[in-house]
Design brief:
Length: 245
Amino acid sequence: MANESRPCPCDIGDRFDYGGRGQEVQVGHIKAYVCKPSASTDKAVIVIHDIFGWQLPNTRYIADMLTTNGYIAICPDFFVGQEAWKPSNDWASFNDWVKTRDAGKTDKEVDVVLKYLKDQCGAKKIGVIGFCWGGAAVQHLMLKNPHLKTGVSLYGVISRFEDKHSLLHPTFFIFGEKDDIIPLEQVTSLEQKLKQNCKVDYEVKIYPGQTHGFVHRKREDINPQDKPYIEEGRKDMINWLNKYL
């Protein structure tokens, strides 16, 4: 399930057997998964998927978790119909593949989703979370989109926006101590630069012993030793959203 003979640069981890409580809708030029809480709310969270795309059950599980915490959650297809990465793909082709999917070019899609959330869902306070590729997209959006209130970047690929740190909105950065994709030196450097340049509230947190993808790609029942950190990461994410939305 997790370790194919040629794993992609970030392992898919434990695929959740999860169908989702929401529904797929058309939002402008893209498809999206939407889940709404039972009580009406004006708070919403955009969920930006990782390289495995908007249909990964693990990501929908997190979107539904946001809904149980009182948020409208929407996970759009930020690859706009292009294929998501598959664990069976040849990892030698990954760099070419990812060049056609730029985490810094999500603005058009986010504008469409913001309009949908405001017009169709009555959302007034909107935040964003993202994983891996999506975590980099969160950092990009926190640097430039005035309509989002806050963001949580989960193991976002730092090297993508190495020299940009003047965040517009409070942002929470989640990293794993044993992440093979994001070395701790990069995390330390990010923290130093934020300290020097950032005028809004932010937090950078490293979770002991955790690997890339731990918050959404690890199942607690398969990884009991990681369960406390998986739960802590999810709780920290929700608490941050609660604080700023």
